[in-house]
Specification:
The protein is of the alpha+beta class and about 400 residues long. It has eleven helices and nine strands. It has helices at about 1-60, 90-95, 110-115, 135-145, 145-150, 170-185, 215-220, 255-260, 305-315, 330-350, 365-375, and strands at about 120-125, 155-160, 165-170, 190-195, 200-205, 235-240, 245-250, 265, 270-275. It has a five-stranded antiparallel beta sheet. Strand 2 and strand 3 (about 165-170) form a beta hairpin. It starts with a helix and ends in a 13-residue tail after the last helix.
Length: about 400
């Protein structure tokens, strides 16, 4: 019995050794094949780069040589540079084709890529005493001369609601025009300069001794690598969460937002995370707290967040909410569209036979405007007896 076991073990060990030798041979052969392929790829890549350089040199020369010899003289034939055919993408031909004169053509995206988009600052002027747009325009032109105050006007037009819209390229000029309108035109026209809102950031888990008054100085002193300056951070308010942690909401400019976003800052003895201040993300299909591409709900599980919010505040007139927010037959969407249609009708129609626009700036009698406004009631989502 012992001899049989010894023989069996010896045969098994011998078989395993043979298999290991075969596996090693196969591995060595595959490794050699891979190294040969890498060497071949390196050589082909080097040939490709050489051919590409030669092709670029050939295209850099002028394609048409002007000939100023008189008629009848024989033009000299010059030898063309060698041309190497290389496999290049199709889009490179549009960028490398040399027009006459040796100038290289550019793609449209490359031509406008270096140009900065010009910013425009908008200033609206409206009447406080319901004056017409033509009256406001005449008042502005008679009181203010753009040449004297050195302001360049890009556009000056009338909006449908009676306001005057002025577009200016520079912020300083827009602020100067706003100041001149307020000082020279009196209190009748109201000038409003459109200003962009600064982004807001969350600073999570701040210490107890950090408040809205000392957070800016603390950030500047303890985070010197960020190169923050006084006035870059405008602390708005602090609040406490349900887990008894303190967060702070700060208003910053665009450059400061890029410095702080998705980073951790030092405040006292703690390190706090900085995030964008935005609302909780809601799925438009099932009203869950996730992105739409991550939603796994079936069609019968859809829920409209807008209709659900309406039902929460109007329990006596409930509407159907078993649909997605993207559904065109959504009661909330239909009510919004109907409200928009009636608002447009209120601007362009009167209950009496008149073609005058129904706005405060064009209607002298406020009673007529109120009668027109009461003709069209504000629509609300229609309650449904049953939901499909």
């Amino acid at each position: 019995m012992k001899k049989e076991l010894k023989n069996t073990i010896a045969e098994t060990v011998s078989t395993l050794r043979k298999l290991l030798v075969k596996l090693k041979d196969i591995s060595d052969s595959k490794t050699k094949a891979i190294s040969d392929l890498e060497t071949a790829v390196t050589k082909i890549r080097a040939q490709y780069e050489d051919g590409r350089e030669m092709c670029n040199k050939g295209h850099a020369a002028p394609s048409v040589i002007p000939n100023h010899e008189p008629l009848g003289s024989r033009a000299q034939v010059q030898a063309a540079p060698p041309f190497v055919i290389t496999q290049e993408p199709a889009y490179s031909n549009a960028q490398r084709a040399a027009p006459p004169g040796g100038r290289r053509e550019k793609l449209y995206s490359a031509a406008i890529g270096n140009k900065l988009q010009q910013q425009h600052f908008k200033l609206t002027v409206k009447s406080k005493d319901n004056l017409s747009s033509e009256t406001i325009k005449g008042l502005l032109k008679s009181k203010i001369n753009p040449t004297e105050i050195k302001v360049g006007i890009n556009s000056f037009k009338t909006l449908t609601d009676g306001r005057m819209l002025t577009t200016i390229s520079r912020k300083e000029e827009a602020e100067a025009l706003e100041m001149y309108i307020k000082t020279k035109c009196g209190e009748e026209p109201e000038a409003i300069l459109h200003r962009r809102r600064n982004p807001r950031l969350f600073i999570r888990n701040i210490p107890e001794d950090i408040t809205t008054s000392n957070i800016e100085g603390t950030l500047i002193k303890q985070n010197s690598y960020l190169n923050l300056k006084a006035g870059d951070i405008n602390a708005r308010y602090c609040y406490e969460t349900k887990k008894h942690s303190r967060n702070l909401v700060a208003e910053v400019n665009a450059q400061t937002r890029k410095l702080l976003l998705q980073k951790k800052v030092k405040l006292g003895w703690m390190i706090c995370k900085v995030e964008d201040c935005r609302g909780e993300e809601t799925c438009p299909l099932c009203a869950g707290s996730h992105k739409m591409k991550e939603c796994t709900a079936e069609s019968y599980e859809y829920k409209c967040i807008n209709c659900a919010t309406y039902n929460l505040h109007n329990k006596n007139a409930r509407i159907c909410e078993n649909h997605s927010t993207l559904d065109r037959n959504c009661p909330s969407l239909q009510a919004l569209l109907e409200r928009y249609r009636q608002k447009r009708l209120l601007k362009w129609r009167l209950p009496v036979n008149s073609t005058q626009r129904a706005t405060h700036g064009n209607i002298r009698n406020k009673a007529t405007y109120d009668a027109c406004k009461s003709t069209y009631s504000t629509p609300k989502p229609q309650p449904l007896t049953s939901c499909k």
